[in-house]
Amino acid sequence: MDPFLEVAIEEAKKGLSEGGIPIGSVLVYKGEIIGRGHNQRVQRGSVIHHGEMNCLENAGRQSAAVYRQCTIYTTLSPCPMCTGAILLYGIPRVVIGENKTFLGAEDSLRAAGVDVAMLQDARCIRMMRDFIDSNPGLWNEDIGR
Q1: CB-hemisphere CA count at 13 Å for 122?
Q2: Which residues of the chain register pLDDT less than 50?
Q3: Is the CB of residue 41 less than 8 Å from the CB of residue 50?
Q4: Of all residues in the chain, what percent are helix, strand and coil, respectively (each to 5)?
């Protein structure tokens, strides 16, 4: 088990317990978590607080040199918005819990030279499938459908 994915899963579960969408993320710099977050679109009434965006927000301002040594972990494949933030800040590695329930902009990450690791974690898949089955309208809103 990857301990950083474990924390991202904890964040996803926290979001679900708050009535939100179960997607979590952590930002890791030199083996230490410097940011963690979860999707808070519902909780904040926000259009931008996806898991990765919330994680980056919670990490606070960092220098480009820090971002370029980070790995971001996310329980679900990053959407185009979150991918854009990853590329903007030059984060070189993304570890994804799963992309079976949603295939984000992974090709854009790879095309930009980002190292993308896909885990297909059964817990991440099950959590998202259960959520999507129970909340199709909210899910479609979250991904812009």
Answers
A1: 1
A2: none
A3: yes
A4: 45, 20, 35
Q: What is the pLDDT of residues 45-66, one digit of tens each?
A: 999 999 999 999 999 999 999 9
Integer Cα distance of 34 and 103 in angstroms: 26
pLDDT confidence of residue 40: 97
DSSP result, 12-64: HHHHHHTTS---EEEEEETTEEEEEEE--HHHHT-SS--HHHHHHHHH----H
Is-catalytic flag, 52?
A: yes
Q: What are phi and psi of 61, to 5 degrees?
A: -65, 130
**Which is the catalytic residue, given 11, 52, 106, 141?**
52
Question: What pLDDT is recorded for position 140?
Answer: 84
Q: Which two tokens stand for residue 40?
A: 């808070």
